[in-house]
Amino acid sequence: MTELPRKSQTYNPPNVPAPQPQFSQVNTFTFSPGDTLVAVTGQLAIPPPNNNPNKNSEAEEQSTPQNFEDQVRLALSNLENCLKAVGARKRDIFKVTHHVVDFDPVKQNPSRVFIEWLEDEDGDGDDVGEFRPASAMLPAWRLAGEEWKYEIETWAIIPGRR
């Protein structure tokens, strides 16, 4: 039996928060003839690093939003930056896990914001229309810090030939 070439690689995009030492933000695995499996670490509402060379002080750093929907938007922005860093698109996502502290189907549910993000109303050409990846919504007692109420973990496959 012929062994297929395989390659696993990790990435920490500069426009997302730095990961803890035990993980990378994105891991890809390339299969022959070139399809790539992408695993994105759970993204939180952590503002990306301020890469502005004119930054004067730490006071200019952004903080975690208090509003739940704003946390979802920031986590999705971090997710999108991770996907773009490895050449993946929203349409390549096949599995999503939402972790929600104090989940409530009406008051604290990321579904609406996620669908808006997925449908890509910002016009960058990555319009997925009615496409919806498999997903799970997991109520959580707490995430890595008390300030975070939402985390999204994602799997995607980048086709070898687009």
UniProtKB/TrEMBL annotation:
Pfam families: Ribonuc_L-PSP. SUPFAM superfamilies: YjgF-like (SSF55298). Residues 1-29, 43-67 are annotated as: Disordered. This is YjgF-like protein. It comes from the Eukaryota. CDD domains: YjgF_YER057c_UK114_family. InterPro entries: RutC-like_sf (IPR035959), YjgF/YER057c/UK114 (IPR006175).
